[in-house]
Amino acid sequence: MAYECELIDQQSRPTLVVRLRTAVERFPEVLGPAWGSVMACAGKVGATPTDAPFVAYYNMDMQDLDIEVGFTFAQPLEGEGDVRQGEIPTCKAVQCMHMGPYDEVGSAYEVMAMWIAEHGLQHAGPSFEFYLNDPQETPPAELLTRVVIPVR
Asked: What is the pLDDT of residue 128?
């Protein structure tokens, strides 16, 4: 797949998230329940997400990923239990769209890393993946993932 990278001004957005550590193979087991916990917490105050579900990656150790699983909201919301308040920060970021199976999104990261280096930038914080369609309703080849990497 050909990737188009673009430099964006990412605006701050409040989030509700569950932070956890897991191996990538366990994603099907952990992501749904984490997103469900966030939605249950937000639902108690009638809040709805402002964007697609996301995962923030604090490292790229596929056997011990440090991640936040959540949604963005129009205003800050109180967390509860494992759900906590967070924020996607205001920053410069590189963004690109990956179309295809989730297990092939690594190729987008490779292209983005080269683009970042070619433009004299540096990775500056957790990477975000926004999952734009439902994998239970969308064929793997048509899945859309927006990848956002903060830079300086």
From this structure: 98
